[in-house]
Amino acid sequence: MVRKMNRLFLRIILALFLVPCVPVFSPAQPCNGCLPWAEGYQLAWEDFKAQPNPECRMLDNFNVAVTYDYTWNDSGNIVFDVHCYFVCDESWRVRERVRPYMLEHIQGNFDIGEVYARKLKQELSNFTASANYTKNKIRWVYKKNEEDRLAFNALYDIETNHGYYFKEQEAWNQKIAALLGGLRQYASK
Predict the structure, then answer these.
(1) First CA to last CA distance, the chain
(2) Which end of the chain has fewer CB atoms < 10 Å from its terminal CB, N or C?
(3) 45-66 residue pLDDT tens
């Protein structure tokens, strides 16, 4: 019961404070300097292209973005395009101070982004369009998905202590892999 309350509290805090800060890449704003999630690709420190913030005490900072676009096909059905990106141009590290386990943990954050890209695609695949509310409904579904992703990411970061708890990190790696496998049909082609 306490754990459920803590998760609910964390979700509320994230929804109120973090979601407005999440960058959204619209179709008119392509994700320049981004690396699309790909099966089997492992992040490398070289993927972090931004310069470290000298005033920041963190050893690294990264950004994962889930994007969407939609069109109508010839039959009048809505078709969604959903992707997960690692935003290289907004991600940095302090070279002298990072540790290998940190990169494995960040890979988990990237993989969680792909899990939620697939969940978004799954949710939108059941979507029926109506000219009166399509944009607002899609935005609401996207925002809810982002809130869920950020809450799940926060739980991951807390339970693994950002990768420092090796046993918990391994358990989360397996959990994330299982989630990706369960949503394989929604992977980007």
Answers:
(1) 40
(2) C
(3) 999 998 888 888 788 889 999 9
CA 5 to chain centre: 24
Q: Which residue is listed with tokens 């005033």?
A: 55
| pTM metric for this prediction | 0.82
Contact 82/71 with Cβ under 8 angstroms? no
pLDDT of residue 129: 67
Residue type, 67: T
| CB-based contact 7:155 (threshold 8 Å) | yes
SS3 state at 63: coil
Please give the Cα distance from 87 to 103 (Å, whole number). 15
Residues 6+ apart with CB under 8 A from 71: 78, 79, 81
Nearest partner of 153 among 107, 91, 99, 94, judged by Cα: 107
Residue 136: what residue type? Answer: N
What SS3 class is residue 2? helix
